[in-house]
Design brief:
Blueprint (H helix, E strand, L loop, with lengths): L24 H10 L5 H5 L5 E3 L15 E14 L6 E7 L4 E6 L3 H5 L7 E10 L3 E4 L2 E5 L3 H6 L4 E3 L4 H5 L4 H13 L11 H7 L4 H9 L4 H31 L13 H8 L6 H15 L5 E6 L5 H14 L3 E5 L3 H15 L6 E4 L5 H13 L4 E4 L2 H4 L7 E7 L9 H6 L5 E6 L5 H7 L4 E5 L9 E6 L4 H13 L3 E5 L7 H19 L5 E4 L5 H13 L4 E4 L12 E6 L7 H8 L9 E6 L5 H12 L3 H12 L2 H4 L18 H17 L9 H11 L10
Parallel strand pairs: 4-6, 9-14, 9-15, 10-12, 10-13, 11-12, 13-14, 16-21, 17-19, 17-20, 18-19, 20-21
Antiparallel strand pairs: 1-8, 2-3, 2-5, 3-4, 5-6, 5-7
Helix pairs in contact: 8-9, 9-25, 10-12, 11-12, 12-13, 21-23
This protein binds adenosine-5'-diphosphate and magnesium ion.
Length: about 700
Amino acid sequence: MKQSPVFQTNSLQANTPVTYVKGIGPKRSEVLAHAGINTFSDLLYHFPRRYLDRSTITPIAKLRPGTEATIVGKVLSLNIVKTRKRPYFQVLITDDSGQLRCVWFNGAKYIQNVFNVGEMVAMSGKVEYYGGLQFVHPDYDILESSDYATLNTARIIPLYPSTAELKKVGLDSRGFRRLFHRYFEKLNWQIDEILPREILDTLKFYEINRALRQIHFPDTIEELNGAIRRFKFEELFFLQLLLAVKRRSIKEIKKNLRYDTTGTHLKSIYEKLPFELTGAQKKVIHEIWEDMKSETVMNRLLQGDVGSGKTVVALLCASIAIGNKYQAAVMAPTEILAEQHYRNLKKLGEPAGITVRLLIGGQKKSERDLILAEIESGTAELIVGTHALIQETVTFQNLALVVIDEQHRFGVLQRSQLIEKGLNPDVLVMTATPIPRTMSMTLYGDMDVSVLDELPARKGRIITRIVNVDQLDKVYDYIRKQIKSGDQTYIVYPLIEESAKMDLQAAIQGFEYLQKRVFPDFRLALVHGGMKSADKDDVMQRFSAGTVDILVSTTVIEVGVDNPNATIMLIENAERFGLTQIHQLRGRIGRGEKNGVCVLVERKRTETSHKRLGIINGTTNGFEISEEDLKLRGPGEFYGTRQHGFPKMKIADLLVDRELLKLARREAFMLIKNDSHLRRPEYSNIREHLITHYADYMNFVDVL
Ligand code: ADP
Ligand code: MG
């Protein structure tokens, strides 16, 4: 590919646009822009996806079927092989020890143009036996003819990620290798360090130019590991810096209220509680009280497994605000949950003299107007509702505390909206999703975190059983027997986004089948996310009132609904649920005096699915379960729970790099503590890097 030399420059800097960088030019720079590469620095951060060295290469003669391997050799021949079914493409590779066949059944047209006879290539894949050893659809890289010699001198060869579009302009793995070779061997440049000197020194990270050279052309494996360690840290450091800035910007918001005492309500509610608080509840209430007393607003996440008793914590904190003549609001994600909270909070709060009100969409206008007036005058002290509470034209007399329950159903917390309304209340977010520490450090990294890590002693236990389809009749018999003695049952069907339509269909059909064929003598009802909210509420109400025996649902009941009389939960196609999801679902039963029985119906049994369900069976500790979920399914599930844009990690792995993450967090938060706006001249690079690379994740309150 010929490149125009006209604009190209010899003075390379981090922010030099790629068009002006040697070997790029306008055409390539356009394509690179699509891959997010706009500057010389972006280009340098296009890291190899893996490396070849002698120790990772297997001689063809030593390949064993069933293993993963990488070979390096010359292309001996290229053929389209015609068969009775479908033609396939075949490449024969030879090295000093033997020959190997590589075949492609798909994309033969494209792949024929990739290889040339006599070229050096690296192939990676699973060794299969089919009348001889072969790779099917291997991962391939074209090498230079000199690379063989390079490998023999124990050098390490970088292999780069690429796209079809990049390949068209010559930027396949080999193309990138040639470019970088030129930058590192032929040109003279240095880019500025973006990590603080003292961190590099004390934590012994490579300086940026050494790390760049070693990540592209490592001298040794040790050097490579050193370079990777630096860039992982760098990525995590900026992520944590972003969070530290967000947290700091919230911490700067001064409250216009003061607490000198906890007031009288706290004590009177506490004394009337029908149980003793757990140690964890006391500890958490103390943490929240410290925040409330502070001059700046609270931004705290309260994590507690299902049943850990978050509601009473919220009530006791609200009672402090109310005892000081302020108002408190509790927001729930659905009307059902808001009503449930309302009933519970009223039961405990009213005897202490607190006026509790409910504000939801479905209220009559006259009733609503009355409540709105009470909120405005301050007569209503504890207001429970949906997010209509802050979004609509609700005027509080003096709102001091907002409690948000089950945050993940809300999506983004509209703190800026609250501020714009002129309210600077303390915010407590409660979630029952047990988020592993590593994840919460990131997902909720801008908040202070309290954990309810102790469950109240319960009267009932939850017994979990895994069954297959053959055992279902027995389970149905058991359910009939229990219903006759007055219990209620949940039957839950999976519904995942990718197959939502089919899943919904399956749930509806399941419901009809159950009503007609299995439980004709009982009262069944169906509830799912596609129903109107009034209809949903109606069904839930009937289930709560006991006029429905079996509630068939998709996962809509997952969050918070409390019916102490429901003792059985049957989960269909349990293998399709996330572990955390099953754990939360089963937290709905055994809430009363009796034991709960959770039956997991495993329809498609695989080794992994069985192992996963075994974990659910083995522990009732939500944190353990979510750690396992994280290991088995990756962090995607957890990202989904907080819908704000979140920088993607390119090189760091939040699961693997926990130690680096902790270091990065400590250093980033320390930095912001010492120089809250990164104004010191020695941090100007960091500041600039943060602003140019993370602007999308900041908003007006985060301004540096
Ligand atoms: P969650 O954290 O899932 O929201 P809840 O607040 O709904 O849990 O509490 C679950 C049940 O446990 C409620 O019935 C509540 O009254 C009860 N509970 C809360 N704290 C305690 C305690 N310390 N001892 C006994 N029961 C408690
Ligand atoms: Mg709750």
